[in-house]
Fold this sequence. Notes:
Chains A, B: This is Stage V sporulation protein AD. Chains A, B: It comes from Romboutsia lituseburensis DSM 797. 2 copies of one chain form a homodimer. By secondary structure, chain A is α/β, with parallel strands linked by helices. Chain A folds into 2 domains: 5-176, Stage V sporulation protein AD (Peroxisomal Thiolase, Chain A, domain 1, 3-Layer(aba) Sandwich); 183-335, Peroxisomal Thiolase, Chain A, domain 1 (3-Layer(aba) Sandwich). The first copy, chain A, has 9 helices and 15 strands. In chain A, helix 6 (238-251) links the parallel strand 11 (231-235) and strand 12. In chain A, helix 1 crosses helix 2 (92-101) and helix 5 runs parallel beside helix 6 (238-251). At the A-B interface, helix 2, strand 6, helix 3 and helix 9 of A face helix 2, strand 6, helix 3 and helix 9 of B.
Amino acid sequence: MSTKRIGNRTVKLQNGPTIISAASVVGPKEGKGPKSEYFDLILDDDLYGEKSWELSESKMVQTAMKKAAEKAGKKLEDINYLIGGDLINQLFPASFAARELQIPFFGIYGACSTMAEGMCLSSMLIDGGFADFILSGTSSHYCTAERQFRFPLELGNQKPMTAQWTVTGAGSVLISSKGEGPKVKFLTVGKVIDKGIDDGNNMGAAMAPAAIDTIYAYFNDTKDDPNSFDLIATGDLGKLGKQITEDLLKEKGIDISNVYTDCGIEVFDLEEQDVHCGGSGCGCSASIFAGYIYNKLKNKEFNKVMLVSTGALLSPTSTLQKQTIPCVAHAVVIVNEE
Amino acid sequence: MSTKRIGNRTVKLQNGPTIISAASVVGPKEGKGPKSEYFDLILDDDLYGEKSWELSESKMVQTAMKKAAEKAGKKLEDINYLIGGDLINQLFPASFAARELQIPFFGIYGACSTMAEGMCLSSMLIDGGFADFILSGTSSHYCTAERQFRFPLELGNQKPMTAQWTVTGAGSVLISSKGEGPKVKFLTVGKVIDKGIDDGNNMGAAMAPAAIDTIYAYFNDTKDDPNSFDLIATGDLGKLGKQITEDLLKEKGIDISNVYTDCGIEVFDLEEQDVHCGGSGCGCSASIFAGYIYNKLKNKEFNKVMLVSTGALLSPTSTLQKQTIPCVAHAVVIVNEE
């Protein structure tokens, strides 16, 4: 077996792929949330000067990527690969961003797990010496997601209390083989788990089993101690999915409760902002990681963090065909080395 | 700069990631095409016993993946990663296949470039020692693609002569760090290129510039000789796109005409099967590679092949918003080592 693998599912990176910079862009509502001070850009208008929400979303992720490169003093020509995707059919925002940025492009789709999926792939490609710099990022937009997955906004549909609110936001990280910053040390790639939930307005419950499976696999493979982490952040399970994850992991002997949060809870004020169970969308864990968490890592307020972005791989077509919701979660462990 | 990189864009794999098996499944029409003898399974009925075309497409790619594992004498539990995707919104077929196969899953989207995209990622992850076995594959289905991208089949719409016919087919390869078989030696990842074509019924012309860009980058980086190849196969540019690619590469000083074909031309009999410019869809280069090309490599009739899967990253939404078509092409060079 490869010496870079630990246990069944986990990879231990040998050469310390480093997150040398990160940047985030969010919409007006997210800019009023509790983590607003950590975002690089808060838009006044969610159209961002474009003619459509999809073009706005594409511009948001472009901006996050350009800013991440700029912060590290890198030109776009220095970047070997761009790895990205989003919720929108055929990755309209990411594909158009890749056209603009002119960096060789791997399109990925993991629904709201995309941020961690991109970080897993980027870290391995850097660690293996196949690239010197990789930009990875993702986005979501409340208005593009609602009309694609649910109803036209103009209908003003109401949602049940288990529903979440798609974040308008983008986040990007620049990962390199050298330079200063926190390093990706472990990653655990998710299996697709489906426990039979078919309610697209209860994604937290649908995705929690995937998060549990991946987090459990990590701890089972590494025998690591949950309390050695400063933060374990799933995203975006929301309030209900977080509770399920915490409870069921405890039943399986893994108690993460002291260090556990969910990006969907961090991004909005659940009491004040009328978002029901919390934030969701690829941009949720992307902006919270690239904004809040990365800044805390950089400042050494956090020294060991696990990001577990979670995605629901349903489609409107699969739902109409009465299929249940397959879900996936990928874990990335990031540390400041002494 | 990383020693695994050559020139600007090309990666040279050091540890000989090996394609130890491949398998393909195609629909009835493809089973009447000129390469039918190379496919592992030809369906009698394009519903494949399922209730919807999407579920049929998912079953096709599952079958191709299971057969690839079986041919190499591997169990699904032995496989570290599954890398796949398809044309369908939210990767309905691939996501459901990953749910069934229970292998840690990276979802990717590169439209019809997905086969080569998956092979690029798989080869690097194997070469870098992050996995021992990776299954990579993709699919397309005439009936799922037509209704999603164009019109309901029941309308019986006619198409212009520049249009192509989406292949009902799936192909999968099993790549490993050891074992017998042809090896992936070089890869060149594509940039997103858009020369302003906005006609979704002329994908060959839209995608040709992306193929040209990637093939040119490979030859520019490596100084390799086109005539050292037994075959250079783009896919799926069709008749028109192939001609454009051949002509414009010749203008740039790269003459591939002696060894050049396109998977969209190989899969159907263009004179007899009423497919206009030829085959298209992720399943086109996937089934032609996993069927015809892989078999010829295995038998040493071919000893050096370049597969350049090409994808058009448009969406129905981007088209409605009057956007042109961004395209991408990834190249994988596979050799039998003496």
